[in-house]
Design brief:
It is built from seven helices and eleven strands. It is of the alpha+beta class. It has a five-stranded mixed beta sheet. A three-stranded antiparallel beta sheet has the order 3-7-8. Helix 1 packs antiparallel against helix 4.
């Protein structure tokens, strides 16, 4: 019997109980012809039988919950929330716990005498100047070829909570925020071209794509180092 069928049976059983004590008994208008004989409804066989059925219903409901609760628990799959985005022709995933916001692309203002190759300048985020870093430079990727993508896409800025404060990371495209099973993430491994990839936890197949999982702590440390 399914959980839905069990709940339906419990509901039907509850409706079948005649609570005559509330209508014509001690809690009603006291018109029951048996009331003078029993003095109180609790002394009546009808009341006792209804109480027994009520207890049986609660017992059945408890058994139903115990029977189906483990199955519901087993269906829960632990997931990790990732923001999935593209740089050049590569798709990457970063845990959203370090993500503050996905924002439209803003003008990046270059800074004189920049000491870091990854530092592109600063961007205005809600009235505050925030350092802007190149993920392509940090990860050692090949720069995007102009017009390489046949689809119309809109570049975005990932505003990340780094160790020293917010940092802007421009990306070529954002697919969205997705929950990926932790089992798949833990099973992700490095192979081939990704063996020596920087700040990479692993690679897994996601939909029809090869998704590179970034190591959050390593990347944030690299960002901090690039700004010092």
């Amino acid at each position: 019997m399914s959980a839905l069928a069990a709940q339906s049976l419990i509901h039907s059983e509850a409706q079948a109980i005649d609570d005559c004590w509330n209508r014509i008994g001690i809690y009603g208008d006291k018109s029951c012809p048996l009331l003078p004989q029993h003095i109180h409804c609790r002394n009546c066989d009808t009341y006792a039988a209804a109480a027994t059925r009520l207890l049986d219903r609660y017992s059945f409901e408890q058994q139903s919950q115990e029977l189906y609760a483990p199955q519901a628990h087993e269906q829960k799959v632990a997931t990790c929330s990732l923001v999935i985005f593209r740089l050049s022709e590569e798709w990457l995933g970063l845990p959203t716990r370090c993500l503050d916001e996905v924002a439209p692309m803003q003008t990046i203002h270059s800074l004189p005498h920049q000491r870091s190759r990854a530092l592109r300048g600063v961007a205005n985020v809600r009235g505050t100047l925030v350092p802007c870093l190149s993920l392509v430079e940090l990860l050692g990727l090949d720069p995007a070829t102009p017009g390489a993508s046949s689809q119309r896409v809109m570049p975005r800025m990932l505003i990340v909570a780094a160790h020293g404060g917010a940092v802007v990371l421009p990306v070529d495209e954002v697919d969205g925020i997705h929950n990926i099973a932790e089992g798949d993430i833990n099973a992700a491994s490095l192979s081939g071209e990704h063996v020596s990839a920087k700040y990479t936890r692993g690679v897994l197949q996601w939909k029809t794509r090869s998704l590179r999982l970034l190591d959050e702590e390593q990347l944030l440390s690299a960002i901090t180092w690039s700004l010092t």
